[in-house]
Design a protein that fits this description.
Elements lengths: L4 E6 L5 H15 L3 E6 L13 E4 L8 H14 L3 E6 L2 H4 L5 H18 L2 E7 L15
Helix pairs in contact: 2-4
Length: 140
């Protein structure tokens, strides 16, 4: 299939994490490649299917979206068979994230998605009205 990026946006408390976990668990059952779940703490580690690789970013200093991109490349370089990467709480993982950063991040992830044939599904906790225009096409 075509590689893609999907974004779950909306304010806190709208069940986005629960939906993301369900999507990750579903993916791990239905695809051959590996699934990675990135979170800013390990609170949800045990809600995930055991086959999913869980990455807790709390011990890393991810100051901006460019460091996050490097982090993604690091994960991909360790394992060539990753098919889907789920990211919870983008704004918690990346310390400083403005809407321009989100646009740039999506642009780069789009390229990585195509180059490595990996799908990204990310949670961006922001009101729908705050989602930049260039990012709206990724909303699910």
């Amino acid at each position: 299939g075509i590689a893609m990026i999907q974004i779950l946006a909306g304010e806190k408390g709208q069940g986005k994490t629960k939906r993301l976990i369900e999507m990750a668990n579903e993916a791990s059952k239905t695809i051959d490649g590996n699934v990675v779940f990135i979170d800013d703490d390990n609170r949800h580690m045990y809600d995930l299917h055991y086959g999913i690789r869980f990455v807790d970013t709390s011990m890393y200093k991810i100051f901006d979206y460019e460091v996050f991109i490097g982090f993604i490349y690091g994960i991909l370089s360790q394992n060539g068979d990753i098919q889907k990467i789920f990211v919870d709480g983008l704004g918690n993982i990346i310390r400083s994230l403005n809407s321009e950063d989100v646009e740039n991040l999506c642009e780069v992830l789009d390229r990585i998605s195509n180059d490595y044939n990996v799908d990204f599904t990310l949670i961006y906790s922001a009101p729908m009205t705050a989602v930049p225009d260039q990012v709206r096409k990724y909303l699910i």
